[in-house]
Amino acid sequence: MRSIIFANYIARDTRRLGATIKARLISVYVFIEKCLRLSCLNHSVSLICVFDVEHSHVRFLGNLVLNLWDCGGQDTFMENYFTSQRDNIFRNVEVLIYVFDVESRELEKDMHYYQSCLEAILQNSPDAKVFCLVHKMDLVQEDQRDLIFKEREDDLKRLSRPLECTCFRTSIWDETLYKAWSSIVYQLIPNVQQLETNLRNFAQIIEADEVLLFERATFLVISHYQCKEQRDAHRFEKISNIIKQFKLSCSKLAASFQSMEVRNSNFAAFIDVFTSNTYVMVIMSDPSIPSAATLINIRNARKHFEKLERVDGPKHSLHMRMR
Amino acid sequence: RPFYVEPRNIVDEDTQERVSEEASVMNSRMQYYSRLTGSSDRLLIPPDHVIPAPDEIYVYSPLGTAFKIHGNADGSGQNPSIITIFAIWNTMMGTSILSIPWGIKQAGFTFGVIVVILMGVLTLYCCLRVLKSRAAIPFIDTSSWEFPDVCKYYFGSFGQWSSLVFSMVSLVGAMIVYWVLMSNFLFNTGKFIYNYIHHVNVTDTDVSTNGTDRVICPYPNTEHHANHSADLYRTYGNNTEDVFDQWWHKTKTVPLYLIILLLPLLNFKSASFFARFTFLGTVSVAYLIILVTLKAAHLGFHLEFHWFHSTDFFVPEFRSLFPQLTGVLTLAFFIHNCVITLLKNNKNQENNVRDLSIAYLLVGLTYLYVGILIFAVFPSPPLSKDCIEPNFLDNFPSSDILVFIARACLLFQMSTVYPLLGYLVRVQLMGQIFGKPYPSVFHVMTLNLIIVGAGVLMARFYPNIGSIIRYSGATCGLAYVFVFPSVIHMISLHRLGQLRWPSVVFHSFLIVLGIANLIGQFLM
Question: Which pTM does this prediction carry?
Answer without folding.
Answer: 0.60
